[in-house]
Amino acid sequence: MRELPEELVLPASMVPEVPPAIPVEPRDAATVLLVRDAAEGVEVFLQRRVAGMAFAGGMTVFPGGGVDRRDADTGVAWAGPPPSWWAERFACSPELARALVCAAVRETFEESGVLLAGPSETTVVADTAPYAAARRALVDREVSLAGFLASSGLVLRADLLRPWANWVTPAEEPRRYDTRFFAALLPEGQRADAVTTEASDAVWQRPADALADWRAGRRLLLPPTWVALAELAELGAAAEVLVVDRTVEKIIPKLVREGGAVRVVVP
């Protein structure tokens, strides 16, 4: 893993001065590095979280969120590596692995409108506009991913995802997540949007340009996002995220206060 730069610090207000006596149990979460090829190179889809949100307000992130209990529904029509394969990559149970993949697909659709599913095991939706109402219903928790896919005659395409990383929020923080990072290509014909209440803006950007914006103070990045962007910046083509063979290890950083900022230290 790349070494974090010295200037990557967190505002002191993000972390309580007195950490919890007993660390909060991390909630399982999934996030997706959605990439595409553009004229000037590989681009990744980024969202700036609404300022004032309880977790990571104002930070630039990838689409993602917490696992919903219904994400573990075994009734999902599934194509690609089985839950047992994902369980080996993320060192978890097959049941949790299924929920993580489903959460990755659901959250990506909810937050960007990109749907990693298709009418069959070898096809993918080219236009997600007909599913706009279902997208809103998913956001409002009126329907589960399994229910939406079944009623729409769609198959979840787990083969369009690849495992990328696993970061756990430091024990000093009051809100913690055990987040599995996935990577995926933007399906042909689909487009990502900013139709979500959780982001103030969204944009496709070259990873190197996003890092330059961070250095110039135009973006706020959490360590996992910084590392992922640095890794994506080395890609020659977006399709490389589907062929790279990555070993995923759980990373649990520690926090160290230095004056008015908090430094993140990776053991």
Question: What order do the SSEs take from the amino end to the carboxyl end, as H and E?
Answer: EEEEEEHHEHHEEEEHHEEE
Q: CATH top level?
A: Alpha Beta
Q: Which runs of at least 5 residues are low in confidence (pLDDT < 50)? A: none
Number of domains: 1
CATH superfamily annotation: Nucleoside Triphosphate Pyrophosphohydrolase
The helix/strand class is: alpha+beta
Major beta sheet, specifics?
8 strands, mixed
Question: How many beta-strand elements?
Answer: 14
In short:
The protein has 267 residues and is of the alpha+beta class. It has helices spanning 83-90, 94-112, 132-139, 145-152, 207-215, 223-232, and strands at 9-11, 27-38, 41-49, 60-61, 64-66, 78-79, 117-118, 155-157, 161-168, 177-185, 199-205, 250-251, 254-258, 261-265. The chain has one domain (24-237): Nucleoside Triphosphate Pyrophosphohydrolase (Alpha-Beta Complex).
Write up this protein:
Its cofactor is Mn(2+); Mg(2+). Residues 25-235 form the Nudix hydrolase domain. Keywords: Hydrolase, Magnesium, Manganese, Metal-binding. This is NUDIX hydrolase. By secondary structure, this protein is an alpha+beta fold. The protein has one domain: Nucleoside Triphosphate Pyrophosphohydrolase (Alpha-Beta Complex). It has six helices and 14 strands. The protein has helices at 83-90, 94-112, 132-139, 145-152, 207-215, 223-232; strands at residues 9-11, 27-38, 41-49, 60-61, 64-66, 78-79, 117-118, 155-157, 161-168, 177-185, 199-205, 250-251, 254-258, 261-265. The strands form three sheets. Strands 2, 3, 4, 5, 9, 10, 11 and 12 form an eight-stranded mixed sheet that branches. It has a three-stranded antiparallel sheet with strand order 1-14-13, with no helix packed on it. The mean pLDDT is 91.
